[in-house]
Write a structure and sequence with these properties.
- The chain is an alpha+beta fold and 227 residues long.
- It contains four helices and 17 strands.
- The strands form four sheets. A six-stranded antiparallel β-sheet has the order 8-7-17-16-13-14, with no helix packed on it.
- Helix 1 runs antiparallel to helix 2, helix 1 packs antiparallel against helix 4 and helix 2 runs parallel beside helix 4.
- The longest helix has 19 residues.
Length: 227
């Protein structure tokens, strides 16, 4: 489903003046297919779930890189979305934010490409956000953010399945137990009626979040994002 949506978005992206350039040769959707295949091949089973690569390098021939130049920024953004969508579908988790770096390789002929993904942990400079269903982003910081129905909640959701105070997002303690020294964030359920889930699994206690994790409160799903 993710790749089908990606292909439809790309069709709209290359309409008009760029359409002729994409009627033949390497198609952008093939990069998406290679990227998801690399995630599947390099995934690793870990105690907290199946970890997939989050930093990708895409190598293209000089001619293909030149052909993609007018839409490169938009293509990279779409590829990041493809990786996140595929991770959600396969219940993969990331160690850090998803990024795609496109480069030219003069040893590649037109139509050839290489995709390589690595698992890279979040850096201290990576900001954290909650992405709401309507597209709004709420930046997380040193203070806890409560999600609920009441007006004084940090994130107010008009969802009857959400409790008055449903879940709490806060910095995760570092190795010394100090949340101010941590670069990670965690979520915990705060006695809600319907519970809180991360990637479809109920949260018990507090769970550390990784880029792309999908947090469900009531009937509402919120994406945790590092950028």
């Amino acid at each position: 489903m993710g790749l089908q949506q990606f292909e439809r978005r790309l069709e709209r992206l290359v309409e008009g003046v760029f359409a002729r350039a994409f009627r033949s040769g390497l198609q952008p959707v093939e990069i998406g297919r290679r990227l998801t295949r690399d995630m599947d091949l390099r995934r690793t089973i870990a105690p907290r779930g199946t970890i997939a690569p989050n930093e990708f390098t895409v190598l293209l021939s000089r001619s293909d890189r030149t052909r993609f130049a007018p839409i490169e920024d938009e293509l990279i953004s779409e590829l990041v979305t493809v990786a996140r969508d595929h991770a959600q579908t396969e219940n993969y988790v990331f160690l850090g934010p998803v990024s795609v770096n496109m480069q030219t390789d003069d040893d590649l002929s037109a139509g050839m490409l290489l995709v390589s993904g690595e698992m890279v942990k979040s850096s201290e400079s990576a900001k954290a956000y909650l992405v709401l269903p309507d597209g709004r982003k709420v930046e997380l910081g040193p203070k806890a953010v409560i999600v609920g129905r009441l007006p004084d909640a940090g994130v107010v959701l008009a969802d009857p399945n959400v409790s008055r105070y449903h879940a709490e997002f806060r910095p995760a303690p570092d190795v010394d137990g100090d949340p101010l020294g941590s670069t990670d964030f965690e979520v915990s359920d705060i006695g809600s009626t319907n519970g809180t889930k991360v990637n479809g699994i109920p949260v018990i206690g507090a769970q550390t979040l990784r880029d792309g994790d999908m947090v469900t409160v009531g009937a509402t799903t919120i994406r945790f994002e590092r950028a």
